[in-house]
Amino acid sequence: MIERIGKAARWSDAVVFNGVVYLSGHVAEETRGQSVLEQTREVLAQIDDTLAQAGSSKDKLLSVTIYLADMAGFDEMNQAWDAWVDSDNPPARTTVEARLARADYAVEVTVVAAR
């Protein structure tokens, strides 16, 4: 059975299948246009919320992909990440520079987690 969370016309915030939770890319809405640090904090809080809705949490992360609009923000992103991530259960992680959907998005994060 496939479960969809936060379903919209174009995507779902999360899809659960066979005990695995797949999150769509999460971006900052309230802090859009602000610093990489602030946007990352907001995105990670959104991820906490979406994982909770799916019956999971950050200690069950399997992999994370972080997209930065500019790698110059890598240290700021890591400041927020290091304060958030469960260091006893760190996921596999990839960080890349990419042009994001809007010019005022600095970071987008997608996650795969166990349920």
From TrEMBL:
UniProt cross-references to Pfam families, sorted A to Z: Ribonuc_L-PSP
InterPro entries assigned: RutC-like_sf (IPR035959), YjgF/YER057c/UK114 (IPR006175), YoaB-like (IPR035709)
Gene3D superfamilies: RutC-like
Name of this chain's protein: RidA family protein
Protein source organism: Caulobacter zeae
Native organism taxonomy: Bacteria, Pseudomonadati, Pseudomonadota, Alphaproteobacteria, Caulobacterales
